[in-house]
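Re: that backbone. Tokens:
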């Protein structure tokens, strides 16, 4: 994936780390909707930290201002598609219709990862994201609650043509905001979400970089909101962008590795 070029872009003149708020997420276990019949037991989630809100237009504007190599028209085509930041009024400034505190969208996986690296973080894994996304305001795992599902599904009934509102919704159980209801979000391992037991055992993650394998066994098939996110993410390449896909960053807890 042009690893050398990507490394150069990530390391170029790193700016000061953002003062963004991160929530400390305790470790636990997760039975993922992606669990295969061959999986033995729930996935163990190590303690980590997650950005309280998605990255905003203002924050990404500051990033591309400090790192012009990520401005529209300057970022290499291998790392962004033709719709990267397309709604911005210039290569370094969001358009008038994009609220500063609204989530930034039309950013590729490469751009999101570069932002998080600059902030001293990384993109969350799918398991980490799903673990936090399972919570409501008072339950660590609310996925079995009909009212939780109904509330999330109501988002999909709303028009996606309206301008995105500012971040800052109610806190969930882990102290995280807006993980549902605003934008879909990049995860680090998006390219391996749709895999079969055979493809997972081939030991070559590059084969899964731009497409999912054909066979998949999904648990909790009635959890349409999460499954729709999986379908979107698995359809994208790392350079791809959409107008309803943003991101937030994560950090491993001290003493933990990703």
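Recovered sequence:
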């Amino acid at each position: 994936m042009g690893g050398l070029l990507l490394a150069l872009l990530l390391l170029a003149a790193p700016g000061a780390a953002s003062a963004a708020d991160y929530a400390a997420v305790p470790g636990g276990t997760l039975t993922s909707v992606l669990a295969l019949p061959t999986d033995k037991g729930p996935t163990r989630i190590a303690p980590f930290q997650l950005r309280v809100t998605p990255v905003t237009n203002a924050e990404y504007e500051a990033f591309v201002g400090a790192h012009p190599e990520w401005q529209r028209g300057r970022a290499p085509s291998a790392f962004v598609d033709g719709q990267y930041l397309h709604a911005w009024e210039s290569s370094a400034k969001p358009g008038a219709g994009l609220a500063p505190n609204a989530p930034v969208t039309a950013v590729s996986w490469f751009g999101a990862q570069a932002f998080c690296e600059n902030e001293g973080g990384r993109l969350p894994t799918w398991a980490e994201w799903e673990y936090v996304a399972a919570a409501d305001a008072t339950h660590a795992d609310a996925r079995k609650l009909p009212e939780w599902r109904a509330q999330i599904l109501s988002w999909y009934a709303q028009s996606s043509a309206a301008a995105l509102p500012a971040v800052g919704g109610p806190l969930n159980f882990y102290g995280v905001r807006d993980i549902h209801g605003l934008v879909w979000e990049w995860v680090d391992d998006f390219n391996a979400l749709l895999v079969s037991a055979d493809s997972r055992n081939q030991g070559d993650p590059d084969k899964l970089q731009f497409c999912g394998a054909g066979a998949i066994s999904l648990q909790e098939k009635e959890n349409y909101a999460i499954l729709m996110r999986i379908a979107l993410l698995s359809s994208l390449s790392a350079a791809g962008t959409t107008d309803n896909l943003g991101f937030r960053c994560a950090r491993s807890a001290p003493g933990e590795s990703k």
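Residues 149 and 223 are 7 Å apart (CA to CA). Helices lie at 3-11, 57-66, 109-118, 126-133, 146-156, 197-200, 224-234.
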